[in-house]
Amino acid sequence: MTKRNSFPDILPPRADAGGPTTAPGVIKTVAEETKTDLAPPWHVIVRNDPINLMTYVTMVFQKVFGYSRQKAEAHMMEVHKRGLSIVWTGGREPAEHYVRVLQQYHLLANMEQAEP
Amino acid sequence: MSLHLQRLPDGSLCLAGMDEHWRHVLASVPALLAEPQPPAVRERLLPTPSSKESINRDWRELIAPELEALWRANHELMAADLGRLEKDTAHRKCWRVVFPANHAAAWLSVINQARLVLGSRWDVTEKDMIRPAEDLKPTERDHDIFLIHLLAYVEQLFIETEEGSNQ
Prior knowledge:
By secondary structure, chain A is of the alpha+beta class. In chain A, 41% of the residues lie in helices and 16% in strands. Chain A has a domain at 40-113: CATH 3.30.1390.10. Chain A has a 3-stranded antiparallel sheet with strand order 2-1-3. A 4-stranded antiparallel sheet of chain B has the order 1-2-4-3. Chain B has helices spanning 20-34, 39-45, 53-82, 104-121, 126-129, 140-166, and strands at 4-7, 13-18, 86-87, 95-99. By secondary structure, chain B is α+β, with helices and mostly antiparallel strands. Chains A and B meet through helix 2, helix 4 and strand 3 of A and helix 3, helix 4, helix 5 and helix 6 of B.
């Protein structure tokens, strides 16, 4: 990142959206529940690039994740100094959503599943 | 008179103080993005999202075309706004363009994308980006690095306006 030398407003997915649904008459087994619960979470990772401005990256983190300025800057600095930052961790679908939105903003974003 | 972005009383935005040089720089942006991009540029704009092939396949088929369509719409919006450049009556040697505030996000996206396209085209590094301007040479690569910096100035105007509107 460099210092300084349409978007539609993007809302994070609702916490209650995309959860498992059960059709009427279908009994979910305990084993299925357990399998879902134990699935390792996904990390959304942003990597450093030499072109994006630090102020721009901070702004994107604030917009996409609703992070405070302080938290967004901390992630931005981690990207700048360490080369990457895990900016969010959670379920696969929200992770895909966030990677899509971050790429829409032209950040170098990808997702990796945490080690079991 | 320097290039600046201001909010007008009716809420629209005005990019003013645009001399011939700035006018040329901004006019070059939509043209630059309309060119077919080499694989390195495409890979930078649409990086592989994961190490899982099933995710990557869906991405290529569904998400990548959606993002490209969105970016194309942004390019068209900015190009249409630039088509309405007018002489700045307050500063006769300058130009200005007025556009709705909700176009600002498209402008910011396009300007940022243009910088990334130039950067990936020439494989620009952090080291290149901190070279003093006087060290730049009269080559096409250094010309484009200089253009990346110029566009960063415009991008920062949009970021500050965005931050101002959130306070």
